[in-house]
């Protein structure tokens, strides 16, 4: 999302836009009053609020990566924004929804893909959903605070498509977690490592010689969710062709910026949530609900 919603003038339009999203913070006590106050402020102040959103985004981007642990990051933002950490936490958590999951598109796609998705609902366009329906064996290979990574996995709805024992979270060496996955594979298995980080892919390919004796073959794909030539749709078309050559491939996919656009959620919806909470009057009981 962009600052577009902050440009609405009629209060009703502003509230309708908020209510159209299925995020947990809408059920918090006093949230309706907070939205009304924010809408009134936006109508009266206009452009200055958009500038405030930009400032919040800059502060979030400058402070989010300072610490490794999720709660430490919340504390860093709380100090930088001078806000209750409970509100910061709620703003971040409620920004992670199924809308974060990367989707494939039929636009400019080859005919087989367009036909496969014809007359399907939006959820079917989710990359994980389509891969599951096509029978792919998928594991998630991710790096970060384990509790937060697994919480994002649940909040995004990715847990509907991937079994818990196929989720591997590394808080230290990500390559060691990849070894755990590779050690479970049968001989002659083709493993496709999918990540947005080229260094992680290079590290994965460096394991090829280590698994040669078991004939476990490692392939890589650098996904770029904003690049039409390497986005989720491009990857999906590519892996279908690869499966024709190597039946029963195993997919090892990164989570952030590979199957879920979590960076966009942080700089977009989370920052908008923070702005709304800053605009909410102190009497609103957001603190108690969080």
Task: Give a verbal description of the structure.
The structure is a single chain. This protein is α/β, with parallel strands linked by helices and 290 residues long. It has two domains: 3-98 and 263-289, no CATH class; 102-260, Rossmann fold (3-Layer(aba) Sandwich). Helices cover 48% and strands 9% of the residues. The protein has helices at residues 11-19, 31-45, 47-63, 70-81, 85-93, 111-116, 127-133, 146-155, 174-183, 198-205, 232-245, 262-279, 286-289; strands at residues 137-143, 167-170, 190-195, 217-222, 250-253. It has a five-stranded parallel beta sheet, with helices on both faces. Helix 10 links the parallel strand 3 and strand 4 (217-222). Helix 3 (47-63) packs across helix 4, helix 3 (47-63) packs across helix 12 (262-279) and helix 5 (85-93) crosses helix 12 (262-279). Residues 1-31, 118-124 and 281-290 have low confidence and may be disordered. Residues 1-30 are annotated as: Disordered. Residues 8-17 have a biased composition (Acidic residues). InterPro entries: HAD_sf (IPR023214).
Low-confidence runs of at least 5 consecutive residues: 1-31, 118-124, 281-290
For the record, what CATH class of the largest domain applies? Answer: Alpha Beta
Mean pLDDT: 81
Reading the helices and strands in chain order gives HHHHHHHEHEHEHEHEHH
Beta strands, count: 5
Q: Which secondary-structure class do the elements indicate?
A: alpha/beta
Number of DSSP helical runs:
13
> Biggest sheet, strands in spatial order?
2-1-5-3-4
Shape: elongated
What is the CATH architecture annotation of the largest domain?
3-Layer(aba) Sandwich
Q: Could you give a short account of the major beta sheet?
A: 5 strands, parallel
CATH topological fold name of the largest domain? Rossmann fold
Q: Give Rg in angstroms.
A: 21 Å
Strand percent estimate: 5-15%
In whole angstroms, the N-to-C terminal distance is 23 Å
Number of domains: 2
Q: Name the helicity range.
A: 40-55%
């Amino acid at each position: 999302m962009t600052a577009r919603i902050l440009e609405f003038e009629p209060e009703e339009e502003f509230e309708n836009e908020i209510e159209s999203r299925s995020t947990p913070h809408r059920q918090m006590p006093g949230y309706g009053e907070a939205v009304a106050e924010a809408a009134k402020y936006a109508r009266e102040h206009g452009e200055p609020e958009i500038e405030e959103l930009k400032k919040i985004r800059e502060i979030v981007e400058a402070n989010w990566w300072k610490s490794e642990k999720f709660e430490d990051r919340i504390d860093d933002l709380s100090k930088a924004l001078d806000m209750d950490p409970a509100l910061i936490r709620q703003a971040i958590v409620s920004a992670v929804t199924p809308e974060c999951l990367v989707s494939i598109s039929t636009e400019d796609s080859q005919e087989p893909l367009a036909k496969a998705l014809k007359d399907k609902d939006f959820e079917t366009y989710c990359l994980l959903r389509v891969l599951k329906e096509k029978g792919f064996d998928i594991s998630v290979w991710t790096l970060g605070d384990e509790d937060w990574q697994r919480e994002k996995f649940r909040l995004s709805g990715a847990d509907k498509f991937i079994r818990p024992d196929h989720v591997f979270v590394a808080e230290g060496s990500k390559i060691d977690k990849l070894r755990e996955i590779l050690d479970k594979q049968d001989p002659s298995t083709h493993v496709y490592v999918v990540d947005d980080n080229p260094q992680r892919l290079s590290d994965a390919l460096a394991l090829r010689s280590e698994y040669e004796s078991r004939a476990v073959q490692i392939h890589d794909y650098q996904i770029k969710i904003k690049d039409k030539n390497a986005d989720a749709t491009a990857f999906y078309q590519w892996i279908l062709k690869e499966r024709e050559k190597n039946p029963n491939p195993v997919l090892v996919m990164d989570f952030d910026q590979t199957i879920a656009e979590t960076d966009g959620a942080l700089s977009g919806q989370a920052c908008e949530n923070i702005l709304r909470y800053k605009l909410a009057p102190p009497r609103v009981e957001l603190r108690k609900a969080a």
